[in-house]
Specification:
Helix content is about 40%, strand content about 20%. The protein has about 220 residues and is of the alpha/beta class. The longest helix is centred in the C-terminal third of the chain and has 19 residues. Bound molecules: D-xylitol-5-phosphate and zinc ion (ZN). D-xylitol-5-phosphate binds next to strand 2, strand 3, strand 8 and helix 7.
Length: about 220
C-alpha cells in the first residue's frame, strides 16, 4: 500500500481554510484529517459537521474524521452526512465498539478504531476483522503541535506484523507529532497513512511542507520493501 499523507486541518489557518486545503491537495496529500473534539473526551473543542460540509465543497480528497468525543454513537451519522469518507472512534470512548464500527460501515464510510498511547494494541484484537484502519496516537489527544511519543513505533510494528501475518485489509494510520525528521521512521515501522498538522500548516507554506513530507514518505516506503 502506497503511504499517504493526511494533513490535519486543526493546525490550518481557519480564516483561509479552503485555500489551505486546496494547497495540500495540489501538493500531493492523500487524505484530509479532521480532528473533532467535544471538550469532554479531550480538554479542547474544535470542529463540527458544518466545517466538514465546507471542507467537502473545497476538495475531492477523502475526509478522514477522527472523533475525539465522549459519545461517538451520537456523532457518526452527522459527520457522515456532512461528507466524511472515513470515521474513526476511540476504543476508550466506545461503550459498544463492535456495534459502533458496524454502524459506521453501515453508513457507507470506512471504519477506524483509535488507540491512545496508553492503550495496548491487543485492546482492539476482536474488532480487527471489522475495521478498515487502525489509528495509532503518537501524542495524547487534544492538541496539535505536541512532541512525538517514540513508544508508538513499537505499537505500529506489532500491528503491522499481525495485519500482514493474517493478510487483513487494514491500514495503519499514525497521528501526532509527525515531522519531516521522523516521517520515514513511522513508514518504515509500518504506517500507511500519516497525519501531520503543525508540520504541514505551521510554517506558512502548506504546499511546500506537504511536498517535502510526501517525498520523505515515499523514501520510507522504499526502505520498507
Ligand atoms: C491530536 C490530533 C492530531 C493532531 C496532529 O489530538 O488527533 O491529529 O492534530 O497534529 P500535529 O501533527 O501537529 O501533532
Ligand atoms: Zn487526529
Amino acid at each position: 500500500m502506497k503511504p499517504l499523507l493526511a494533513p490535519s486541518i486543526l493546525s490550518a489557518d481557519f480564516g483561509r481554510l479552503a485555500e489551505e486545503v486546496r494547497a495540500v491537495e495540489a501538493a500531493g496529500a492523500g487524505l484530509v484529517h479532521v480532528d473533532v473534539m467535544d471538550g469532554r473526551f479531550v480538554p479542547n473543542i474544535t470542529i463540527g459537521p458544518v466545517v466538514v460540509r465546507a471542507v467537502r465543497r473545497a476538495t475531492g480528497l477523502p475526509l478522514d474524521c477522527h472523533l475525539m468525543v465522549e459519545d461517538p454513537d451520537r456523532w457518526i451519522e452527522p459527520f457522515r452526512a456532512a461528507g466524511a469518507d472515513s470515521i474513526s472512534v476511540h476504543v476508550e470512548a466506545a461503550r459498544h465498539l463492535d456495534r459502533t464500527l458496524r454502524a459506521i460501515r453501515g453508513l457507507g464510510a470506512k471504519a477506524g478504531v483509535v488507540l491512545n498511547p496508553a492503550t495496548p494494541h491487543v485492546a482492539i484484537e476482536e474488532v480487527l476483522p471489522i475495521v478498515d484502519f487502525v489509528l495509532v496516537m503518537s501524542v495524547n489527544p487534544g492538541f496539535g503541535g505536541q512532541a512525538f511519543l517514540p513508544s508508538s513505533l513499537r505499537k505500529v510494528r506489532l500491528l503491522r506484523e499481525r495485519i500482514d501475518r493474517e493478510r487483513l485489509p487494514v491500514a495503519i494510520e499514525i497521528d501526532g507529532g509527525i515531522t519531516h525528521e521522523n516521517v520515514e521512521d513511522v513508514v518504515r515501522a509500518g504506517a500507511d497513512w500519516v497525519v501531520a498538522g503543525h508540520a504541514v500548516f505551521g510554517g506558512g507554506d502548506a504546499g511546500g511542507s506537504t511536498r517535502l513530507l510526501v517525498e520523505r514518505l515515499s523514501a520510507g516506503a522504499r526502505d520498507r520493501c
